[in-house]
User: Fold this.
Amino acid sequence: MRRSIQILSLLLFSILFIFATYQLPDWLFADLYLRLDPLLNLNAIFAAREIIPRALWALLTIGVTLLIGRFFCGYICPMGVSIDLLDLFFFRKKKRENPLRFESTLRKTKYFLFIFFISAAVVGLSLAFLFDPMAFLTRFYTFFIYPVVTTLINLFLDLLRPLFHQLGWISFSHLHFPQPVFYMTAITLLLFGGIILLNRWVPRFWCRYLCPLGALLSLISPLGLLKRRVSEECNRCMRCRKACPMGAIGENPIETSRAECIQCGTCSKVCPKEAVSFPISFSIGGEYSKVELSRRGFFYSLSGGLIAGFLALQTPFRLRRGKLQLIRPPGAIPEDEFLRTCIRCGECMKSCLTNTLQPSLWESGLSGLWTPKMDLRLAPCDQNCNVCGKVCPTQAIRSLSLEEKNHAKVGTAILRKELCLVWAQNKICLICDEICPYNAIVFRPVEGYRRPVVIASKCNGCGYCEQRCPVSGESAIVVVPHGEIRLKEGSYQKEAKKLRLEFKPDPGDDKFILEEEGFKIEKDQKESKPIPKTKSQPQKPKGFL
Amino acid sequence: MNPHQITRRDFLKATAIVTASLSGVGRLSISQAKEEYDLVVISGEPLPATQKAIEALGGISRFVKKGDRVILKPNMSFARTPEVGATTHPLVVATVAKACIEAGAKQVLVLDHTLQRPELCLERTGIKEACKGLSGVHVLTIQERKFFKEVKIPKGKVLDRVEVIQDVLENSVLINLPVAKSHSATGVSLGIKGLMGLIWDRESFHSRYNINQALADLATVIRPRLTILDATRALTSGGPGGPGEVRKLNLIIAGVDPVAVDSYGVSIVPWYGQNFKGHQVEHLLMAHQRGLGRIDIDQLKILKEKA
Assistant:
């Protein structure tokens, strides 16, 4: 029963994950699990210092926990499911000491982490994502599972391709899934692997000792109605105590730490006397249920969080924030708020159609770890897609209509003349002009040659030019954050209009080639300074004789 | 929803008409005493004009035999809706696909190696939707190198080999379904330029080779059995991706000679505001000089009709 619920939950998590693509229907909340996570949302609300509507979904989890207890960890949490399943797979036969020697100290760690993260959030530093299971697992799925599974599926398809070919199954013989690629795949795997490895010593090591979400839930779970009760039949065989994956049963097996009990029912299953049940009970507490935090530990973690928060916010990164070369996804709220609100779940990067969204490592310091940036040399941002905002659980990237999103300028393309084939080498190249969806790149006659220039007011920074530029290595045309529009609220279209920007795919002035000015400019230039023998302006469009 | 998008109902209606009229086409081709034309130029809406063009050429069964594998090469390289003029009209593609199936084709593959994200191209161009109900018709984008195979170009001047989509090489009937549009590097992009959608490394045509010479080389090894040029709209500037000036010409131009079809296509509308003839388009002239087809449209027997 519990196992099936767990597996269903992991399945739902995975399905929602798969559905997070540009075709995501509006009624489907691909970010459901992230919305339900009270720690992430509490963190975001404190850090951003405002109520985030989608974050209120987490009240559901809190409400049900108040009603039932810490069921979330035992039944719903996909991280818990993953840990349980992999535990079965790897460590079933391991003899594990239960409890550990430093049990009581370790137990407190998760509370200290929780306090640490929340106090850092109060100062404005969002850090809970480091240890939050939902953000962690979503990142693991995005940066590891998704690329690996795609590769495996493609390998499998390659293997069967000759067969499909023989059978004439065209849709299969030509099937291939675009391979997503991400930075930080290896780091994510190492971290996840570490969490699983900890099970070698204690089952659910992570959930018992480290998970700050578990800490939050365990603080309120003693209020839950369903509580473990041991009847008089108990013969003190201690099997329940040994079997409890959370180590929630005391030396006297009648005692239960309500903060730790996840109501998985393992104890009642192993009890030879069938003495354990989970009836409704209004009693609160019991000595063993107390969450014991030493005053010193509480103080340390609180001040640790505050200091970390202050320190991380007072770095050169903060001063340089507006001047950094980071391109944020369209609809990202202003940088300060963005860093406070983003919970680094990676859902935007998973759903990104073109794979341009990539995690930042240290480009904007600790406070920018794992935040999404656009890698436009890798891939552009497509004007037909607005999914990153749709799936953002805290709306650090606003959910925008396509029209709005295309007005959320992320930066401006600049031509680096020293690299450009046309400017520097007089070669014929017009790829950027050709690919630009907004005709923001035009050729103007300069010094006897037609040279590409960017019309900044028509460029919304989509990056097609940067990605396609045929110059090896760094692109000769790059998008810089200059001119980006970052709005906390209100219409991007209105803002763009105010700034006299126009991102309309209009025909532009492709007839330049036939204009006479080209010649005039050439003559003028020649008078002022001699130019080495230049080609005459073509009178006809390229390709015609 | 944009008004130019085809609803499934529209499409079903349209296909019903195709089916009905195709039975007529079949009969026509048998009793074909008509003189053979080098080119047929039919004016009308995409669907009836395409039907009529096929009919006037002697029916699709002249090109597609029972059990054949057919490759249709429309232009669906850009994620643009049909009215932008950068991609082949979905009804032209669906009409030809349907006709091929009716003629007994085993499979019809609608293929392109797209420039933009494939899933968006299939969706936005409307081509996937238009071909949805047709059994045996598969609309695919080929984006992976493993689906390409190298062929030698014995007559090549700048290219001596090129990687082409495998299916095109495997004994199948290739029908080219280009759209009429301007092109910033080659002047126009019609049938021969459209062949570039069948190769792996299109980048090198722009960066490494003289694109016009490379296109002529390519045309010596990829020889479509039939070219049906969709000039129902022509993107006369801003090509190949658009946006640009779109002229509604309502023309379908079809023929077996790829150079002749393109050459006629050059003459139907001013490009970038200027009138041109086929031999003024560098890559067409080169293809003609290689003996790939006739470029002087005045010498051709042309059927002009209304659908």
Notes: Residues 24-33 of chain B have pLDDT under 50 and may be disordered. DSSP finds eleven helices and twelve strands in chain B. Chain B touches chain A through 48 residues (CB under 8 Å).
